[in-house]
């Protein structure tokens, strides 16, 4: 089976899962090519040549990040088997199923939706009950995720029907989270900024998937089209990017270091 696996990853978790899933599928005999939506324009994907299409992305409040949603909108209509994988720090609900709906409306046949639990990359004030995963707990997450990906690969290879999360609880919880997110996002947009410890190294501007940073006079300035993938916030070498004044307390609001302790991408 020739599989095209399309993904977005903010801080490396989904990229980590995609890499392992591709390896497992190849071991089962599939021919898999993975495409980051940041590296390959949707118009360059040869969907017609694939036997199955996979999508993978992080859960952002029970939805896919807009940058990935827009990318999926550009895929051509096709009568192809489709699987959708999310990564979430705590709970994914119906996210995979919900994000795949625009594709099913264009002919794709969704046979598998599943989440892989990965370390949480999102920890800001008012979310103190859901802390970022401390580095010492990351290896356990990765071990569990490896086992989960192995099981999922077998199901995908066999095209076994497995729709996780689209039950009544998942759908209701998902709808509630999606409804509440826009207010939260507007507040975040108003507060996100780089503080005076910014050295103007430019990493954020080079790696933001939405070009939301601009360097002016050796300082990073925030623009307003951020999708809160948390890449810059977590990986700025100075921890200069703040969600509010409180996140300057970096021992409390610690930054996620990525699944393998290094910046992504
Ligand atoms: C804006 C935002 C919202 C998030 N919402 C959720 C959520 O609703 N449930 C959850 O379990 N994890 C949530 N997370 C955590 C991420 O889904 C999780 O850490 C994911 O594996 C990150 O993947 P990535 O490294 O590929 O970006 C959220 C993260 C961000 C940045
Ligand atoms: S990555 Fe951090 S230090 Fe570098 S320019 Fe951006 S905000 Fe400044
Ligand atoms: S500004 Fe930072 S959090 Fe927002 S989209 Fe860019 S890298 Fe992601």
Largest sheet: number of strands, sense, barrel closure: 6 strands, parallel
Q: What is the assigned CATH homologous superfamily of one domain?
A: Flavodoxin domain
Distinct ligand kinds: flavin mononucleotide, iron/sulfur cluster
State the low-pLDDT regions, or none.
Answer: none
Count, helices: 7
Question: What is the CATH class designation of one domain?
Answer: Alpha Beta
Spatial ordering of strands, largest sheet: 2-1-3-4-5-6
Q: For this entry, what is the oligomeric state of its chains?
A: single chain
Over all CA atoms, what is the radius of gyration? 18 Å
Mean pLDDT: 95
Inertia-based shape: globular
Order of helices and strands: EHEEHEHEHEHEHEEHE
Helix-strand makeup class: alpha/beta
CATH architecture assignment of one domain: 3-Layer(aba) Sandwich
CATH-defined topology of one domain: Rossmann fold
- C-alpha termini separation: 28 Å
Binned strand content? 15-25%
Q: Give helix % range.
A: 25-40%
Structure explained in plain terms:
With 265 residues, the protein is of the alpha/beta class. It is 33% helix and 19% strand. The protein contains seven helices and ten strands. The protein has helices at residues 13-27, 66-73, 95-104, 138-157, 168-191, 203-207, 231-235; strands at 2-7, 31-36, 52-58, 81-88, 109-117, 162-163, 193-194, 213-216, 219-222, 241-242. The strands form three sheets. A six-stranded parallel sheet has the order 2-1-3-4-5-6, with helices on both faces. Strands 7-10 form a two-stranded antiparallel ribbon. It has a two-stranded antiparallel ribbon with strand order 8-9. Helix 2 links the parallel strand 3 and strand 4. The chain is globular and about 55 Å long. Bound molecules: flavin mononucleotide and iron/sulfur cluster (SF4) (2 copies). One iron/sulfur cluster is lined by residues 208-210, 212-213, 226-233. Residues 194, 198-204, 220, 236-238, 240-241 line the site of one iron/sulfur cluster.
């Amino acid at each position: 089976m020739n599989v095209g696996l399309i993904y977005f990853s903010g801080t490396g978790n989904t990229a980590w899962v995609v890499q392992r899933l591709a390896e497992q599928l190849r071991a089962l005999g599939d021919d898999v090519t993975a495409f980051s939506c940041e590296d390959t324009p949707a118009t360059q994907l040869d969907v017609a040549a694939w036997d199955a299409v996979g999508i993978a992305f992080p859960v952002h409040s029970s939805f896919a990040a807009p940058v990935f949603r827009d990318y999926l909108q550009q895929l051509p209509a096709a009568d192809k088997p489709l699987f959708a994988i999310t990564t979430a720090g705590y709970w994914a609900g119906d996210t995979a199923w919900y994000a795949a709906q625009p594709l099913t409306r264009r002919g794709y046949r969704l046979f598998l939706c599943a989440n892989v639990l990965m370390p949480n990359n999102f920890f800001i004030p008012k979310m103190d009950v859901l802390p970022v995963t401390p580095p010492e707990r990351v290896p356990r997450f990765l071990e569990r995720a490896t086992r989960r990906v192995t099981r999922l690969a077998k199901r995908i290879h066999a095209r076994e029907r497995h729709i996780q999360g689209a039950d009544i609880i998942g759908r209701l919880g998902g709808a509630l989270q999606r409804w509440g997110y826009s207010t939260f996002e507007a507040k975040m947009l108003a507060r996100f900024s780089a503080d005076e410890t910014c050295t103007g190294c430019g990493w954020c501007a080079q790696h933001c998937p939405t070009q939301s940073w601009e360097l002016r006079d050796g300082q990073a300035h925030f623009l307003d089209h951020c999708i809160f993938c948390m890449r810059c916030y977590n990986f700025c070498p100075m921890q200069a990017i703040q969600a509010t004044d409180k996140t300057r307390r970096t021992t409390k609001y610690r930054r996620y270091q990525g699944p393998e302790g290094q910046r992504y991408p």
